[in-house]
Design goal:
Length: about 280
């Protein structure tokens, strides 16, 4: 399941992760989100994102990927149905009235689904992105196909749709730390089991959504942190450890994640974990 679906499952089961959503969202935007900047840059460069691009970002979170596209001249719309705290941070970053400046292009942020972003006055999108990586937890692509099916009618025929995923575990140092989530969440194993990324994860999602794969790439996205505390906060902000927190407690998860990070702490106390992420470009039929 995706982190969103994990949270929904726990809520139905009568237990929720003992975390502060606002603090977690801030940790994501200040520490963790930037780790995927090389992925965003590689995709935007390959697709020549700029003036004339009308981008729809699915699961846009706190909006760094949208901000980067807007800085290239793109008109951007972001939708996120389940993380209002992150979306509030995206508004601080992207909406011009927050800073008293004029927008570079039309920017919209919508708490909801792609249908909620539909607007008869808005031209069809020329690019759709789903940058939240899949291929880390068992079932973490559930719901993504439906989200893509809802989004693609809003895009031009032939428009690229970009999906992102974790690379093979032997190329992702962080995989060893993510296994902590599986161990601690064993009573909830079906909701959050770590599993290695599979070669065709992204292609299968695209095909289920009726999209035509049209190229892919791999990008090095090392996770680098100023210290162990920042690394723990950053990783926990992903939501991948929520099931473990619900099954045990915050202190235990913090402790075991920190222990798993020790092999990657350097002499200057920084933490460095090389990773490779993969992206797929598919086309709207």
């Amino acid at each position: 399941m995706t982190p969103t679906l994990v949270r929904q499952h726990l809520a139905h089961a009568g237990e929720t992760p003992r975390v502060d959503p606002g603090a977690r969202a801030r940790d994501w935007s200040e520490i963790q989100e930037r780790m995927l900047v090389p992925l965003y840059e590689a995709v935007y460069e390959r697709l020549d994102v700029g003036h004339g691009t009308r981008l729809l970002g699915l699961g846009c979170g706190s909006g760094l990927a949208l901000l980067m596209a807007a800085s290239r001249g793109a008109a951007v719309t972001g939708v996120d149905a389940s993380r209002p705290e992150r979306l509030a941070l995206a508004r601080e970053r992207l909406l011009p009235e927050a800073w008293g400046t004029r927008p570079r292009g039309k920017t919209r942020l919508v708490e909801g689904t792609p249908q909620d972003a539909a607007d008869a006055e808005t031209p069809a999108y020329t690019l759709v992105t789903a940058f939240e990586p899949i291929g880390c937890l068992a079932g973490d692509s559930e719901g993504l196909g439906e989200l893509l099916q809802a989004a693609t009618p809003l895009a031009e025929r032939g428009a690229p749709v970009v999906l992102a995923g974790w690379g093979p575990p032997e190329r992702c140092t962080t995989s060893s730390v993510l296994r902590v989530a599986t161990k601690l969440a064993d009573p909830l194993r079906s909701t959050g089991s770590w599993r290695p990324a599979l070669r065709d994860d992204l292609e299968e999602v695209a095909q289920r959504a009726g999209l035509k794969p049209d190229g892919s790439g791999r990008v090095a996205c090392p996770f680098g942190y100023a210290d162990l505390d920042s690394a723990v906060k950053g990783l926990l902000s992903t939501g991948l450890f929520d099931a473990a927190i619900a099954a045990t407690d915050q202190a235990q998860v913090d402790k075991e994640v920190a222990e798993a990070l020790h092999p990657y702490q350097r002499r200057d106390r920084t933490v460095w974990m090389p990773n490779v992420f993969r992206y797929l470009i598919a086309r709207v039929p």
